[in-house]
């Protein structure tokens, strides 16, 4: 009985060594998520070119959306994905067409579903900041009320994000500090709310640039007979998976976000 690590939320650099990338992609099911406004992120189409290497076999099993990759004795899959930076970040998995940068996350979710994709609400308690001096902010009370609506609208909610670390050691982290400094709490809040509202809660690496971050976290899925996205999506909707939850190191966080 084969078990797959499924990490649908990754942003990998186009400059990644091709053979190292092929090895990592062959070890599980990986979503290669682009972002409209950010260049240099490896796309699904970029990954298809790995098939030109003599050591790697790549075959599309759903044109433009899912491909099978074999490197050595291991076989995995990679999937077209996109993170839309709406007021809350939404992950579109399995959409062949690009989703526009709409501000309203409800509209984004609707657009994804209309295009046949799977909509995941990413790191729900951390959102894009309107201030240019900082990239992210946490939620106020009105936004938290709206968040419950988004939990119900999305197909699933990311309740564990490997990038949501505490920037200081745990013994120096206190409740009065801003949530961005103790982002592990954001994961805990997401998981509690998902359980309360009875919606599927996923886990991901949210890998930034570094290929070694892929599959650090994800969902563990068994009994995928002949892999299809429909089967995977049904497994997630039915909560037929286990969470793999592991944070990246502070060193990796600083390297991938600031260097």
Can you tell me the CATH architecture?
A: Alpha-Beta Barrel
CATH class descriptor name: Alpha Beta
What is the fold-level CATH name, i.e. the topology? TIM Barrel
Order of helices and strands: EHEHEEEEHEEEHEHEEEHEH
Oligomer: single chain
Q: Which of globular, elongated, flat, extended, rod-shaped describes the shape? A: globular
- Supply Rg: 17 Å
DSSP helix count? 7
CATH level 4 superfamily: Metal-dependent hydrolases
**Termini separation:** 41 Å
Number of domains: 1
In words, what does this structure look like?
With 259 residues, the protein is of the alpha/beta class. The protein has one domain (3-258): TIM Barrel (Alpha-Beta Barrel), CATH 3.20.20.140. The protein has helices at 18-25, 44-48, 105-114, 141-153, 184-197, 229-237, 250-258, and strands spanning 3-12, 29-34, 56-62, 66-71, 74-85, 89-93, 118-121, 126-128, 136-138, 156-161, 201-204, 207-209, 218-222, 242-244. Strands 1, 2, 3, 4, 5, 6, 7, 10, 11, 12, 13 and 14 form a twelve-stranded mixed sheet that branches. A two-stranded antiparallel ribbon has the order 8-9. The radius of gyration is 17 Å and the shape is globular. The model is unreliable at 129-137 (pLDDT under 50).
